[in-house]
Amino acid sequence: MASVNISELVTSTLRKRNNMFADNITNDIALLAYLKRGNRIVKVGGGRVITESLIYPENGTAKWYRDMDTFTIAAEEILDAAEFDWSQLGAFIYLTGREKIMNRSTEEAIDLVRARLEAAQATLSNMTGAALYSDGLTSNQLAGLRHLVQDVPTAAGTVGGINQVTSTWWQNAANSVAAGTLAATNIQTNMNNIWLKMKRGADKCNLISADYKTYQFYWESLQAIQRIQQAQSADAGYQELFFNGSPVLADDQAPANHMYFLNTKYLKLKCAPDRMWSPDTKRLIDNADYEVTPIWFAGQLVTSNRERQGVLFEAT
Question: Domain residue spans in the chain?
Fold first, then answer.
């Protein structure tokens, strides 16, 4: 059988599968798949932090007037920015000298490369999916929805460098119910409550993501009517229900007894363009008989308007 340079095969295969590798990760995570569909995964340049511009207070000069009434005009700041730290995720595909000797045929080499790729992809996918719901307290981890859309948004703390206690306009909406009381018989009433808290004219929630238990309550509440499933989501393996026109998604990474109401107009995953689950160049280890190929991610989940994000949950 023809021999093959397996180390070059690893490099070339990673290069060819670069976009596919990233696509498989984004498509494999329910929430991430929706952000991708809505063009909410955004490439950004460098910088010490990731900034997200905000427009927060109303114009203080506006008023109803008649004839020659005067206006009070004073300087006021209406622009600010939230700042989010970069989070980094990485994995390495390795190849030892012994493996090069043992896998010289093309078929054997391809099998080994495929196995390593799939293992790395599964690991990065699971870690990214979990991080999208993180509270930001795990060292170096991406700060996810439990940080941006908090159960208790009035508690002491900062999000994006902004104090959420003193800056009440920066608090997300939240609807808490007593532990063990959420059920199919009351799920829609509670969903109505949080949905209305977030709505401002035509600006409203456009995505709901829930853990399996809470999703099941909503599903069971719809048994008397026809359920509609969107083909695009079904093809990707996700069943999709709707609430007031917003898709409702079951996500196995969502925290227990939580349902997130999101307005993705103000929610993005910002990434470094060359580190979107992207393979880097092969690296030889000087003092050992193996080589590694790293795969990197760098970015952060950010929001420019927490008031338009909400959460329904059972208190513990």
Answer: 6-55+79-171+179-314
User: 221 in helix, strand or coil?
Assistant: helix
Q: How distant, in Å, are the alpha carbons of 57, 64, 67 from that of 70?
A: 22, 11, 9
As a whole number of angstroms, the distance between CA 138 and CA 151 comes to 18
Give the pLDDT confidence of 62-96 residue by residue, as tens digits. 777 777 777 776 654 544 789 999 999 999 988 88
178 pLDDT above the threshold of 70: yes
Half-sphere exposure of 46 (CA within 13 A, CB side): 2
What is the end-to-end Cα distance of the chain in Å, rounded? 62
Task: With residue 7 as reference, give the H or E element that holds it.
Answer: helix 6-16
Mean pLDDT over 252-276 rounds to: 93
Do 92 and 294 meet the contact criterion of CB atoms below 8 Å apart? yes
CA 31 to chain CA centroid, Å, is 6
pLDDT tens-place string over residues 20-34: 777 888 888 889 888
3-state secondary structure 107-149: HHHHHHHHHHHHHHHHHHHHHHHHHCCCCCCCCCCCCCHHHHC
Give the pLDDT score at 45. Answer: 81
